[in-house]
Amino acid sequence: MKPLAQATLKPQNKPIEKERSACSSASLSHSGIFLGDKCYWNPATLRNGHAVVLGISGSGKINV
User: Fold this and answer.
1) How far is residue 37's CA from residue 23's CA, in Å, rounded to a whole number?
2) CB-based contacts of 28, cutoff 8 Å, min separation 6
3) Would you say the C-alpha torsion 62, 21, 35, 30 has a positive or negative sign?
4) Which of 18, 23, 43, 61 is packed most tightly, with the most Cβ within 10 A?
């Protein structure tokens, strides 16, 4: 069996734009999905509106 090639990461010259946190000041508008104390998630305002739902069998993931 041949060994796998080593992965090589090269630094990028341009700075990486940081994503806004879920509870940034822009999310305090009381619109979207309530996540907690003064924190709302509005997927329509994000560039990537995908979400992942994880859980064990029978935990109701299909109802989300």
Assistant:
1) 9
2) 38, 39, 40
3) negative
4) 23
Q: Token pair of 38, please?
A: 């003064």
Range 21-30, long-range pairs (CB < 8 A, 24+ positions): none
Q: What is the 3-state secondary structure (H, E, C) of the chain?
A: CCCCCCCCCCCCCCCCCCCCCCCCHHHCCCCCEEEECCEEECHHHCCCCCCCCCCCCCCCHHHC
Note whether 28 and 40 are within 8 A (CB).
Answer: yes
